[in-house]
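Model it.
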Amino acid sequence: MKLDVVHDLQSVYRKVVNATSRPGMISNLSDEALSVENIPVQCAASIWVLALTLLDQEVTFKVYSAQAEKASRAINQLTYAKPVEINEADFIFVLSDAEEGSLEEAIELGKHGTLMNPHNSATIIVEAENVNDGVELLLSGPGIQTSTSVNVCLTGDWIASRNQKNREYPLGIDLMIIDKEHQLLSLPRTTQIIENRVVV
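Modeled.
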């Protein structure tokens, strides 16, 4: 079945809005992702449906990947969004084959808005091995009644980097994590993250 650029992308957009307004709620993009044909680089098809949904000729982007040049060319051709340097990008894609430390670099160098225009900031979309319900990360903040918890299979010290970047609200970056099973977790800058450390 071929991706329906109206119906399917509207469905993806609704799922992104729901996931962002209710951090910790995991949305599944499998139906839409499995409709994508001829993915130009090796990554989760849900990365492409997110790019098609969120990007257009008015925005900019940056890709971290061993296939960055090829991926950037494909995203530009599909969405007409413009590839730029990291500090200018509205959207930053960190694919699973990116070099170690790429996510932390993207968080550190991504634009975080200004007090006059806090919305002029980056959204980072990162490909993870796995996202699911669990107790590894404790989330709290707007959209969460008390607290909720999730597991995210991502290496590196990205949580500390994110906490540092988002320390002066409303400035900060927003994060979306998508796994190989097309599970989407949205972590807006307002969400607080605490690592649950289990002592054995």
